[in-house]
Specification:
alpha+beta; Serine Threonine Protein Phosphatase 5, Tetratricopeptide repeat; 3 domains; 5-stranded mixed beta sheet; 4-stranded antiparallel beta sheet; 15 helices; repeat
Length: 346
């Protein structure tokens, strides 16, 4: 038998039958010799035995090992709490708290004047129907701003006014109209004691504390002229959108008697405020400034195509001439609006 087994060494593994495989397994040949003869025949025979109807009994331990490894590989996939993380996030997500108060102003708008105190009022309103609401106002620049009163309590559904004072500043703000450094934070809670501990919480608020953040907007005639002289058109536009009543500041010599230099319709047309143009109505179309310009002239000079279209729809005379004999179309061409929609409207 040993010589016969040795002859099997020269046979390729795929020629070894299952009977020969059993004979080699029952022989007293060392395991190393068996592996040399069989090569990979053990695994291939096991695969053939597992696919057949009759199970292989030569290597039962190998099948059980594979089964344990498969279970070990599948078990983590099945035991990973795929939904538990989502469930934890859902459970940890706080429910939206009820808003306790609101601030009427979107920003703290300050008419800046150099070396002068500048004041602005903020209006607070309680939104709680039954309980008083405590509030506290903080600023990122306590050396520049004063708040009076800095804290207090609002009765249910009541209102209050707080005053913000900018201490005299010798120079214009480094960034305007909107300040990059100055902020206000209005905290609110049903417990005044919670507001005292809010300062130690990152972000200035905690559980049961509402927070409203306000930016600072520096405007006023002084900064409007400063921006216009510097050629900062973006700052001029921002100031006029926030404070449209300052538009005559850019043309002070127009304020002469018996003239209507910047009527409300002129101001609305110049800044492109179509809603205000419609509100003022057709009755204001006849107004002219000292140069004989209508609101349509002003809108055409500013390149506000939507305001021009709105005025034309309201019945504005596109052929009306100013004191120099120019129509709104002539004004638009002089300003360089050659290929814009202003010309198409006119």
């Amino acid at each position: 038998n040993f010589s016969w087994l040795c002859c099997l060494r020269n046979l390729p593994w795929h020629t070894i039958t299952e009977d020969q495989h059993s004979l080699i397994a029952r022989s007293s040949m060392p395991a190393k010799e068996q592996s040399v003869i069989l090569g990979t025949a053990i695994s291939q025979t096991s695969l053939r035995a597992s696919s057949s109807a009759t199970p292989s009994h030569s290597h039962p331990a190998r099948t059980s090992t594979f089964q344990r490894r498969s279970m070990a590989a599948v078990k983590p996939a099945c035991s990973v709490p795929a939904n538990s993380a989502d469930a934890a996030k859902t459970a940890a997500a706080p429910e939206p708290e009820q808003q306790l108060l609101e601030v009427a102003e979107e920003e703290v708008v300050i008419d800046f004047k150099p070396s002068s105190k500048c004041r602005v009022d903020l209006r607070l309103r309680s939104l709680h129907p039954t309980l008083p609401v405590a509030f506290k106002v903080q600023t990122s620049s306590p050396l520049k701003f004063l708040v009076s009163p800095p804290r207090g309590a609002l009765q249910p559904l009541s209102t209050a006014t707080i005053r913000v004072v900018l201490r005299p500043q010798p120079h214009a703000p480094p960034s305007f109209p909107r300040s990059r450094a100055d902020r206000f934070l209005v905290l609110s809670s049903l417990s005044a004691a919670q507001l005292d501990s809010a300062a130690s919480v990152p972000g200035g608020a905690g559980v049961g504390i509402g927070a409203i953040r306000l930016r600072v907007f520096f405007g006023g005639p002084y900064l409007l002229r400063l921006a216009a002289d510097a050629g900062d058109s973006a700052a001029v536009r921002l100031i006029l959108r926030r404070q449209p009543h300052l538009l005559p500041v850019l043309n002070p010599e127009a304020a002469v008697p018996d003239a209507e230099p910047w009527a409300p319709l002129h101001a609305a047309a110049a800044r492109g405020d179509c809603a205000e143009v419609r509100r003022l109505g057709q009755e204001a179309l006849a107004a002219r400034d000292k140069d004989g310009r209508t609101a349509l002239h002003v809108a055409a000079a500013a390149g506000e195509a939507e305001a021009v279209a709105e005025l034309v729809d309201m019945g504005a005379d596109s052929a009306a001439a100013d004191a120099r004999g120019r129509t709104p179309l002539d004004v638009a061409r002089e300003k360089g609006y050659v290929s814009t929609s202003v010309l198409f409207v006119l």
